[in-house]
Amino acid sequence: MLLSVLQANAAVLDVEANLRTLDDAAGQAAKAGADLLLTPELFPVGYAPLRLRSELDPANLPAIRAQLADIARRNGIALVYSLPSVAGSESGASAPGRGWHISATLIDATGAELLNYAKVHLFGGEERQAFVAAAEPPAVVTFKGVRTALLICYDIEFPEAARAAAARGAELLLVPTALSAGFDAVPQVLIRARALESQLNVAYANHCGIEDAYTFGGGSVVAGPDGALLAAGSDGPELLFAQVRMEAVRAAREEVPYLRERRAELYREWEGRLGKDAAAGKTSGA
After folding, report:
1. How far apart are CA 165 and CA 149, in angstroms?
2. Over residues 196-208, mean pLDDT
3. How do residues 105-151 score in pLDDT, each as one tens digit?
4. Confidence band (pLDDT; 50, 70, 90) for 283?
5. HEC profile for the chain?
6. CB atoms within 10 A of CB 212
7. Distance between CA atoms of 153 and 84, rounded to whole angstroms?
8. What's the alpha-carbon Rg for the chain, to the nearest Å?
9. Positions marked catalytic
10. What is the pTM of this model?
11. What is the dihedral of CA 110, 206, 237, 218, to 10 degrees?
12. How far apart are CA 195 and CA 200, in angstroms?
């Protein structure tokens, strides 16, 4: 599969400008033969959690989703996008008193929705004020013959989240993100480690430039199941491409069978024992 990854600067709450950027990238990616375009976290509306919560009318979300589906159809390319969503509402319609999630959606080249995911790990005070954390594990669908799952930004920094997707059969993990400048170790080290330890392909799409109070460092990456970099962005706008091969996933899992040989029940016992030890005031050590 040929993946394309958009790294760009969004304009907060200027949906039309952001969709033009996304549409242009979809056209370029499709012309290059890409099967899918991955875009950054909350890109269609820009990343500014408190402004989104106070100024974005959730009644407009279905129309934005319809425009994104149209971009996929017109350009003939699958798309992963991220938007706010009203908790418990697939339509995104306004519902007084309901919290909002940060969500990601995979649509195919006809605009049909294949997969939805809501962010489990919120990062920072503004996200926690504006959104509520979800609790559902990453689902897996077959896209172009590839078992595919979604995570969002901070989720991928927890090995348990990536492993949950891999344990469900994922071979490709698509991650919209909004990573601030100064956290270069995340794309350069941690994303590669997540790919290696769960033996899957991980694609990670970040913003760049300044959006309201946030400065983003770019650095989008695609990592293979051996931890190798398949594509890496700089700090400015660009469209990355990477060929991901599922035979590499299967070969890695056969050579070193991490998933098959993990001892999930034992790890749960260890965690339970840790809680009992903490309650009893015990500590580990020599």
Report:
1. 6
2. 98
3. 999 999 999 999 999 999 999 999 999 999 999 999 999 999 999 99
4. low
5. CEEEEEEECCCCCCHHHHHHHHHHHHHHHHHCCCCEEECCCCCCCCCCHHHHHHHCCHHHHHHHHHHHHHHHHHHCCEEEEEEEEECCCCCCCCCCCCCEEEEEEEECCCCCEEEEEECCCCCHHHHHHHCCCCCCCCCEEEECCEEEEECCHHHHHCHHHHHHHHHCCCCEEEEECCCECCCCHHHHHHHHHHHHHHCCEEEEECEEEEECCEEEECCCEEECCCCCEEEECCCCCEEEEEECCHHHHHHHHHHCCHHHHCCHHHHHHHHHHHHHHHHCCCCCCC
6. 14
7. 14
8. 19
9. 41, 119, 153
10. 0.93
11. -160
12. 5
**Residue matched to tokens 């500590």:** 283
Separation of alpha carbons 7 and 272, rounded Å = 42
Q: Encoding tokens for residue 175?
A: 């991650």
Position of tokens 């994922």?
Answer: 170
Beta-carbon contacts of 92 under 8 Å, excluding residues fewer than 6 positions away, are 58, 59, 61, 62, 65, 83, 84, 85, 86
| β partners of residue 207 | 8
Residues in the chain: 286
